Amino acid sequence: MGDSLPKVTGSSTKAINILLINPNGTSSMTEACLRSLETTLPPYCTVTGFTAPHPTPSAIEGHLDGVFSAAAAARAVIPIASNYDAFLVACFSAHPLINALREELSCPVIGIMEAALYSARMLGGRLGIVATGARSKIMHEDAIRYYGLDGFSVGCETTGLGVLELETFPRDKVLGLVSEAARRLVQEKGADCIALGCAGMTEMKIRCEETVGAKDATAQVIDGVGVGVQLLIGLVREGHVTAKGGVFRRAQDGRKARGQDWI
Fold first, then answer.
1. In the chain, how long is the greatest CA-to-CA distance?
2. Cis ω on the peptide bond leading into residue 55 (within 30° of 0)?
3. Are 111 and 95 in contact, with CB atoms under 8 Å apart?
4. Of 25, 63, 72, 95, which is most buried by a Cβ count within 10 Å?
5. Statement: residue 19 has pLDDT above 90
């Protein structure tokens, strides 16, 4: 029966170049994101890591960090943007850089939080986020409402760690705290899809999967870096760009109209 069904095999060799943008100034996080992609990146696709330059914050843990990091990253990315087909903002938040680049550029732009949340909505019935600290929990839950997914969310569980402590604390301790937060989301709150709520957690996916039973499909653990790259590849291969007839109309047109020749 299966042999008689119509089928098609892909043959595209179109090269796709994606810029993974870490808006904070910690390059080791950028490198960790790139390592996490090594086994899943398809042929003809290249992901380049970009760490925002000084004076960007070393970590993004609040609204002011978000604004300052968006400004530093945007000013550095825009001059090199023509070298890339798509952009992934590797900060787990509704980061202001995402919509800023959508206004400025035509190529697709995705943030790792929205990539993880929308993927979770397609794979399960209730999603939850492993957050770092108390403030990130509040900001993530606000972002869930912004993305229209609060009706499908069980909320967040925190590790009690700061963003940089994910790297500086003993590895076993960090893995234990992250996986325990994932366990609480599944076993106590009823989530069946867990989003890792920081780019610094990207290499902790396997430990969380073991904790929540991903192997037998009890729950799924979603890393926004991995799914974000795959979503961008799909958008580029389908020929999609950012729509310019509405809220993301070209920012440079506004600057030109008011006589501004700088960013």
1. 66
2. yes
3. yes
4. 95
5. yes
